[in-house]
């Protein structure tokens, strides 16, 4: 889902009790190992007016991995999760990624960043330069073309550690000198409000086939919030929004 937002001068955000930026996988997934597919971007509280319950909604970046064999709950624009006690259980199957050895590649990327992050940050290494330097190692590890995936994961880890250390939100391009600071600050609207998320999610629902919509029985009124993915990683992708089905206790991420 592509969406352009105006970049505004907001460099630092105070952590709010109802919002958690870059949450740990253990906080959002009942199987944290799945974070190699679903990069945790932000969590926020949603009070559902119809039943008076409070839900902890999590938004993920699903980047750089082609959906080779799309199936229910794992399609290019729809990802379905069961909601239980504030965590998600993915209802799909990793077979949608066509046998790619994503966990092994992700583990290598994490280890490499942990070992070399001080150098990468000191050198302000861009995601493009990182992938170029890592392509030989990636080719020896991955059984798929991991360039786009490594690009997304590296930039996600880079912006995350910058936020964790400074409390400041910066786009990857600003941190690595690819654009002036005055054009690189995060927008105040990088966490979308309820109405804007519904407007964006409606365009995704309208693009789904009738069969797909009947399978999920999604309506725009179920959409409770969203975020701009490109703020969290060096990505051309747009927004991800969450639709909450309180009857089934399911959450769907539309992107």
Please describe what this structure looks like.
33% of the residues lie in helices and 21% in strands. The chain is an alpha+beta fold and 255 residues long. Helix 2 packs across helix 4 and helix 3 packs across helix 4. The protein is globular and about 50 Å long.
Please give the largest β-sheet.
7 strands, antiparallel
Low-confidence stretches: 2-14, 182-187
How far do the termini sit from each other? 5 Å
Taken from the alpha-carbon principal axes, the silhouette is: globular
Strand-pairing-aware structural class: alpha+beta
Number of strands: 10
Count the DSSP helices: 7
Strand percentage: 15-25%
Helix content: 25-40%
H/E topology pattern: EHEEEEEHHHHEHHEEE
- Computed over alpha carbons, the radius of gyration is 18 Å
Mean pLDDT: 86
In short:
The chain has helices spanning 25-28, 102-122, 127-141, 147-166, 172-175, 194-207, 210-216; strands at 19-21, 39-47, 54-61, 74-75, 78-84, 87-90, 191-192, 223-228, 239-245, 250-254.
């Amino acid at each position: 889902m592509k969406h352009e937002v105006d970049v505004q001068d907001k460099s630092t955000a105070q952590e709010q009790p109802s919002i958690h930026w870059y949450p740990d996988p253990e906080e959002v997934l009942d199987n944290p190992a799945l974070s190699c597919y679903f990069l945790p971007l932000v969590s926020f509280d949603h009070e559902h007016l119809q039943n008076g319950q409070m839900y902890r909604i999590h938004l993920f970046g699903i980047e750089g991995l082609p959906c080779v064999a799309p199936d229910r709950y794992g399609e290019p624009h729809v990802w379905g999760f069961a909601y239980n006690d504030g965590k998600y259980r993915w209802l799909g199957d990793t077979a949608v990624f066509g046998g790619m050895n994503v966990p092994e590649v992700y583990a290598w990327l994490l280890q490499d960043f942990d070992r070399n992050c001080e150098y990468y940050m000191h050198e302000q290494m861009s995601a493009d330069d990182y992938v170029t330097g890592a392509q030989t190692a990636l080719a020896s590890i991955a059984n798929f073309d991991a360039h786009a995936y490594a690009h997304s994961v590296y930039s996600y880890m880079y912006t995350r550690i910058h936020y964790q250390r400074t409390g400041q939100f910066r786009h990857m391009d600003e941190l690595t000198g690819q654009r002036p600071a005055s054009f690189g600050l995060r927008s105040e609207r990088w966490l979308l409000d309820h109405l804007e998320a519904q407007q964006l999610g409606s365009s995704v629902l309208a693009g789904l086939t009738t069969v797909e919509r009947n399978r999920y029985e999604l309506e725009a009124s179920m959409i409770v919030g969203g975020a701009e993915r490109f703020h969290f990683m060096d990505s051309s992708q747009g927004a991800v929004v969450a639709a909450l089905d309180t009857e089934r206790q399911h959450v769907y991420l539309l992107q």
